[in-house]
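May I ask you for just one protein sequence along with its backbone structure tokens in two labelled lines?

_____
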Amino acid sequence: MNQRTISIRLDGHKLTIEQVAAIARKFEQIELTPEAVEKIRKSRSMVEQMVQNQQVVYGITTGFGKFSDVVIPQEDVSQLQENLIMSHACGMGDPYPTEVVRAMMALRINALAKGYSGIREETINLLIEMCNRGVHPIIPQQGSLGASGDLAPLSHMVLVMLGKGEAEVNGTRMPGKAALESAGLSPIRLEAKEGLALINGTQAMTALLCLAVADAHALIENADVIAAMTVEALHGIPKAFDPQLHLVRAHPGQQESARKLLAHLAGSERTTAQGELRVQDAYSLRCVPQVHGATRDAWEYVRAAVTRECNSVTDNPILFAETGDVISGGNFHGQPMALAADFLAIAIAELANISERRTERLVNPQLSGLPGFLTEKGGLHSGFMITQYAAASIVSENKVLCHPASVDSIPSSANQEDHVSMGTTAARKLRTVIANSMKVLAIEYLAAAQAIEFGKGKLGIGTEKAYAKLREVIPPLSEDREMHVDMAKAAELLASGCLVPEI
């Protein structure tokens, strides 16, 4: 991998979701600020004094969880940390994608950079170099309860730092030691507190949420312009998006979605006035600002919560160099992220719910006034008939996935850890819901563009751009063809970002 210029400096305080996504997906290079290095050194000095003075401090000179009352002799403190990593690496299932692993690494580095964890400078530097040089630990997706942090997934990350486990380098999976050597790096031996400092945190669920928040933003923007295309295809009534209507209901997301819809439809010759064809549109058209807007507001809440978590200390115990205090608490508990993930999954699923209803209106001749299933040779050709089936199936799957993980808890560690968040499960489900919703909106995108073929008149400013972008890769449907190919291409287009970036 070619060396790249450092572009993101981590200090534990200012990391953004956009920066996490850039590190994860664009392989942006990272380093610590001088201020962060100084804080790390002060925190480490505290740990070394505790060990030297044989103080009884959780996770430094004691066992973990239910074994917190077991005092560890000084000569075994280093072995304790290595044992912790090996014993806690209990993940199962398919490995996380590389982008999730990189996000986890960046987030853990940023948390350690705050200087409350007691890690050595050389240990955090190894993790930084692994990220910068493309050494990506193989981390199974299952196994985290989301309290005591993401112990299992983060342990798999740390195994590679010890020359154990497995990692991927340039697309090749290999033993951890070989992966380090291929990048010119060497394994380390953990010292007091370091194993716990590396794995006791919420970085797996937060990594998933960072990428989900980034993807959800584009999905929300695309949902508005695709809905506007459907409004045009069905000669809908944009008066329902009038700003004075939305100003009297003070939800900012609703007002923003209404503004976007009008901007996308500006200049359109395909829409109608109240009473021209009908007095009111169906809810799936008329209530787009209210439904999409509620999702926008949910997204804003989750974005703020995740940004806070990106710059938080989430391990245990926490060292305060200024006061000399060492406090055992519960900052590793993932409940804030668990609730955020479940909330966003429900909100995103609603974009798919209402999208599928608009697709039904497009393909159903009794509701649209258009040729049945958007084909001129109905009977010989089925047109868009089964695309709506697919959308309905995926929407139904989302409803199952939207049962909140955060309402569940199973006690662990002999009931010492008797309430857990299941936040990582919630975040994993959220990513699936976003991917599913993208597919449902891709189907509406195709159907709306096909329906537009049967009308006349100029499209709106935004809808014309979205229509043209689709037609660059997918031609109109003149006769039956393998629809799954078109559906996949449309979904890829949505996954690539906002159809109309600025409006």
In short: Strands lie at 6-10, 29-32, 92-95, 136-137, 140-142, 166-169, 172-175, 318-320, 325-327. The longest helix spans residues 203-233.
